[in-house]
Amino acid sequence: MNGKYRSIQMLLGLVGMILVVGVASHDYGDALSKCVLFFEGQRSGKLPSTQRMTWRKDSALRDGADVGVDLVGGYYDAGDNIKFSFPMSFTTTMLAWSILEFGSHMGPEQKNAQEALKWGTDYFLKATSVPGKVIAQVGEPNADHNCWERPEDMDTPRTSYVVNTTNPGSEVSAEIAAALAASSIVFKSVNSQYSKILLQRASQVFQFADQYQGSYNTSVGSGVCPYYCDFDGYMDELIWAAAWLFKATNRQSYMKYVVDNIHYLENSTMRQSKEALFVGGSFAEFGWDAKHAGINVLISRLVMNTSKSDPFVRHADKFICSVLPESPTKLVTYSSGGLLFKPGGSNSQHVTAMSFLLLVYSRYLTRFHRSLECGNIAVTPSRLIQVAKTQADYLLGSNPLSMSYMVGYGRKFPRRIHHRGSSLPSIDTHPKHVKCLEGSIFFKSKYPNFNLLTGAIVGGPDINDQYNDTRINWSQSEPTTYINAPFVGVLSYFKAYPHP
């Protein structure tokens, strides 16, 4: 039986190598530059003189006025004009992790990536500037989603949603703490004073998130739901934040927190959507809501080949086996064209996040001279890299439609993305104010978007490898910051090692 499985494994590996070699070569450096540039198109606030995506202008300059706090800045998470702190902080954490793991491969883009990161951390310092309070969101989402207007023209309520000691929001607060802690490591050698400020604030916000536990689903309610409800509870964010604080400080109290609480995730129930319910499968989840696989991969680097490796390495291995196409315990599906799929919309977020973890874990396995087994199939670090590369190449155009799902990359890419600012004419060409419903004609138009949101990665094709290039189909055509953030790391790796 073992011989049979080894033969199958060798065959699959050979097919995988043929597929990797057979696809058209991609310019990963160009893709990386565009991937980082995208974040400039998502900026809120007063834009700097160095702004390169010049069709975007200043916006939301009075954010926070309703609560007496300067909340100008930050990012719009997707194609709308809301600043959701939960996905924005995950985006920030992943940008930081991308730089920490792969910054040395970025070349001149490392500086641009650091600037993109700082745009997020500057905002979160503002959002956590009042002790005992954290800004969970800015902008009334229902009103915003009923309009189709440029961020520069917004006339919908810019309501500030706050969590505090009596109405807590542990998941959003802890994710912000994780973002600040991870970023403090990035800036330690770049701006030591700024790094210290980030780390001190991370510690304070984590303490607040842990001391006053509760979900922002209840505290903020319709402000975040159904858009970014927390479906799996807030313990994963608390553990995630503690893990990053330990990495930033090396204080054993944070590691103790991780070890003492990790059991809460062992048999947790995770609901990603109304249709998707996972029980006990949380080890395989990673994204803006679920941090489980990220926690195990991150901690595995610290405990691999030690007596403290369990359950982190065991669950990190299980995560890998849940993703690999040939694994008997695979929990994802693959299209006939080879793209990874998980339940829920905006599938590219899973592709980029999972690919990032595959690359990071392959580095850790190599460092500690480890491999793993999925059933009777032996898995080497190079196999993880192969799978990540096929996913990256698919998004860049090596797919049945020969279509890049990154705007501005390649000859064929989405032209009608679900994005307000991109779809309406810029202020440069149309200075007149566009009111809430006046932009609807541009939303419904069959013409390409006026402005190129360079580097934006859209939700992507369906399970049949088909893509409908229309703004109406938001789950396929809308870009998000949390799709791009882990892909910054992925592209940085393949820029340095295009032929693994």
Short summary:
This protein is mainly alpha-helical and 500 residues long. It has a single domain (2-496), classed as Alpha/alpha barrel (Glycosyltransferase).
Observed structural traits:
three-stranded antiparallel β-sheet, two-stranded antiparallel sheet, cellulose degradation, disordered N terminus, 500 residues, 6-hairpin_glycosidase_sf, mainly alpha, 18 helices, single chain
What structural category characterises the helix and strand content?
mainly alpha
Q: Name the CATH architecture.
A: Alpha/alpha barrel
Low-confidence stretches: 1-23, 270-280
Strand order of the largest sheet: 1-2-3
Portion in helices: 40-55%
- Number of extended strands: 9
- Helix/strand order: HHEHHEHEHHHHHEEHHEEHEEHHHHH
Instruction: Kindly provide the name of the CATH class.
Output: Mainly Alpha
Report the principal-axis shape. globular
Biggest sheet character = 3 strands, antiparallel
Instruction: Kindly report the CATH topology.
Output: Glycosyltransferase
Average pLDDT, to the nearest integer?
92
Strand percentage lies at 5-15%
Compute the CA-based radius of gyration: 22 Å
Number of helices: 18
Distance between the termini: 30 Å
- Tally of structural domains: 1
